[in-house]
Amino acid sequence: MVASSSSLKLQDLIQEIREAKTQAQEREVIQKECAHIRASFRDGDPLHRHRQLAKLLYVHLLGYPAHFGQMECLKLIASPRFTDKRVGYLGAMLLLDERQDAHLLITNSIKNDLSQGIQAVQGLALCTLSATGSAEMCRDLATEVEKLLLQPSAYVRKKAVLTAVHMIRKVPELSDIFLPPCAQLLHDDHHGILLGTTTLITELCERSPAALKHFRKMVPQLVHILRTLVTTGYSKEHSISGVSDPFLQVQILRLLRILGRNHEESSETMNDLLAQVATNTDTSRNAGNAVLFETVLTIMDIRSAAGLRVLAVNILGRFLLNTDRNIRYVALTSLLRLVQSDHSAVQRHRPTVVECLWEPDGSLSRRALELSLALVNSSNVQAMTQELQGFLESCPPDLQANCASGILLAAERFAPTKRWHIDTTLRVLTTAGTHVRDDAVANLTQLIGGAQELHAYSVRRLYSALAEDISQQPLVQVATWCIGEYGDLLLEGSCEETEPLQVEEEEVLALLERVLQSHMSLPATRGYALTALVKLSTRLRGDNNRIRQVVSIYRSCLDVELQQRAVEYNTLFRKYDHMRAAILEKIPLVERGGSQVDEEAKESKETAQLSEAAPVPTEPQASKLLDLLDLLDGPSGDAQHPPPLDPTPGGALIHLLNLPCAPPPPAPIPNLKVFEREGLQLDLSFVRPPGTPTLLLITVTATNTSGGDVTHFICQAAVPKSFQLQLQAPSGDTVPAQGGLPMTQLLRILNPKKAPLRLKLRLTYNHFGQSVQEIFEVNNLPVEAWQ
C-alpha cells in the first residue's frame, strides 16, 4: 500500500512526462514510476492493479519496455469486475501477441466471458480475440464465436462477424463452420453487420472453391441490397457526401466481382444493377468516385455486356478530366489494364491520355507514357509518334529511356514505310541517343542496309546530323558506319529526296577525325570511325595518305581493340594494297529470318553430321599429350596436313594479314530459366567474349504470357565480393501482356579468380494491381559460365 500511495495518478504522470524538458528527464520520471508499478505488482494490490497497468500501458505507448505487465493482464482478465476486465483486455491487445507464450493462457478466460450474457464483456473478449488470436486460439474458440453470430444483440453480432473474418484469415479450414450463418446475416438491417458479413463472405470465397459455389446462389440477395442502397434517399445515419453508405456499396461490389468472375449466370444477374449504379452515382464528391471506380472494376472482371464495358471505359475517361490528381492516376492505371482487352474503347480517350503526358506530377506522366505507348497501333502510329517525340524533347531525364525505347519499338512494329522508320529512329537518336536500348544501333544499320533505295538519303541525313552534334554516341556510331559503307553516294551530290548538299572529301575526313579525337567518343565509337576511314580509302577518288597517317597514329593507342584494328588496317595498306578494294567491299547484311539464316543453319547441321561420322581416336592419354607438344613445337612427319585455306573473304583476310588463326568458337552455354510466376518468366542467357575469358555477359530476358502488363519491373542482382558486377540499363520497365515484346537487361560480371558463380536476384514489379517483391538465389548456373 505504501508503493501505491507514493506513486502518481495517470493524469499526473502524463502531465509530468509532458513537462520534461529533456529526454533524460523523461526517462528519469518513467524509470521512477516503473519502479513504483513493479513494487505494486509484487505486493499484489488488487484494488489498484488496473490503475497501475493503465499507467504501464501509457509508458508502453511511449516506446519504453513494459513486458513485466503481461501476467497482470491475465489477472485482470480473470477478475469478475468490469473495470478490471476492460484494462486487462486492453493490456492483452497491446502487450501480447502470437510470439508470447502467455497469450495462450487467456484462452479459457475468453471462452468464459463469451459464454456470459453481458454484452460489454463479450465485446471486449471478441475484440481481443480478433486482434491477438493465434491459430490455436481460433480453433478452440470457433464454435463459441459461431453461436454469437446469431445473438439478438446487434452489438455482439457485429463484433462476432469481425472475429470470424480474423479466424478465416488465420485458419482457412474453419470455412465450413461459418457458411450457414452468413445467409441469415445477409437479411439483417444493421449496416455494420451487413458490412462485416460481406467482408466475411469475400474471405470465404477467396479461400474456398466450395464456398464460392455456395454463395453464387446469393447473388440476387446481394443485388437487392445494393439496389436498395442506390435508390434510397438521404439518410442522416449512413449517407456520406450524398452517397448512401459508400463503404457498404464498395464492399458489395467487390464481392460481386468475385462471384461473377468466369460465371455467365451470375454476371447476367448483376448487369442491370451495375448499369444503374454507373449512371446514378453522384461524382461530385470522393465518396461517389470510390463507388464508381469499384463499379468499373467489377464490370471489367465479370462477363459483362459489351455496352456495359464501353460505359466503364467512358467513366474512366471522365476521371481523366477530374482536377484531383489521385483520381486521374487511378484512371490511367485502370485504362492501362483494359487496353489489351478493350483496345478500341480506350482509343477514344487517346487525346486526353496524351494531354496527361505534360502533367507536372512525375507519377502521372509516367503512367500516361505507359498508356500512350500501349495505344500505338498501325492506324495511329504516325500521329502518336509525333506526340511522343514532342514529349521526349522536354520530358524529365528519368522518363527519357522509357520514352525513347517505346518509340523505337512502336516504329519497328508499325512503321508504314522504311523511310518513315529511318526518320523516326534518327530523330530519337538525335534527341535522346544516350538513353536508347543497346540494340538500337544494330537495328538501324540493318534497316538502312536492307533499304537500297534509301542509301543515299540515309547517308546524307546522318552526315548532316553528325556534323551538328557528336555527343550522342549511338547516333555517331550509326552515322560513321553509314558514311563508311556509302560514302561514295554522299559525295555524288544527287539525291532527289533531300536538299542539295555539296560535300568535299576533306570535310568528310575531317569530321571522322573529329570523332576520333573527341573526348566524348567511346572506344566502340572510335572503332566505328577508324573502320569508316579505312573503307573510305576505296570509295574516295583522292589521295589516301591522310587516311594512312591517321591509321598509323592509332597503332600505339592504349585501347587494345583500337590498337589491333589499326595494326591490321596498316598491314592491309602496306602488304596487301592490291586486294584492299575487294576486302573492303560493302558488307551484305543478313535479313532477319531470311534465306541466309536458313543456309547457315543447314551448314551447321551438315557440319555436325560430319563430326558425328568422323572416327574417334582411342589413343592413350600420354600419346595425346605428345601430339599436343608436337603441335606446339612444329609439324612432324606423321602429322596430318592442314586443311586447305577457307576461300571465304574472312578466312582470306586472316591469312593475308599474317594473323594467328582464331581458335574454334566455344560451345554455346545453355540458357537457364530462374523464375516463373503468374505468367511472368525470367530467363538467363550467357556469353563469354573470347578475348576476355574472365568476363561473363548475362542477358536477363523477362516475358509475360498473362493477361495483364507487368509494370514498374526492376531487376537487381548481387554477387560475392570476389566478383565485380555491372548492371546495364534495362530496355524498359514494362513487360507487355500476352507474349508481347520481352524486356531485357545486361549484366557484366568479372570473375578474375574463376570461382564458382552464385547470383542473388531481387525482382520488384506491379502485376494485376498488386505490388510484388521476390528475392531468390541462383545456384545452378552452368559450369561453362565461370570455369
Describe the structure.
This protein has 787 residues and is an alpha+beta fold. 59% of the residues lie in helices and 9% in strands. The strands form three sheets. It has a five-stranded antiparallel β-sheet with strand order 3-4-5-8-7, with no helix packed on it. The longest helix has 21 residues, at 23-43. The radius of gyration is 37 Å and the shape is elongated.
Task: Lay out the secondary structure.
Blueprint: H1 2-6, H2 10-19, H3 23-43, H4 49-61, H5 70-78, H6 82-95, H7 107-115, H8 119-132, H9 135-148, H10 154-170, H11 175-185, H12 191-207, H13 209-215, H14 219-231, E1 239-240, E2 243-244, H15 246-260, H16 264-280, H17 286-301, H18 306-319, H19 325-338, H20 343-347, H21 350-355, H22 362-375, H23 381-394, H24 397-414, H25 418-432, H26 440-450, H27 455-468, H28 473-492, H29 505-517, H30 523-539, H31 545-553, H32 560-575, H33 580-583, H34 595-613, H35 621-633, H36 649-656, E3 672-677, E4 680-687, E5 695-704, E6 710-718, E7 724-727, E8 743-750, E9 759-767, E10 770-778
Antiparallel strand pairs: 1-2, 3-4, 4-5, 5-8, 6-9, 7-8, 9-10
Keywords: Coiled coil, Cytoplasmic vesicle, Golgi apparatus, Membrane, Protein transport, Transport
Region (Disordered): 595-618
Pfam family, one: Alpha_adaptinC2
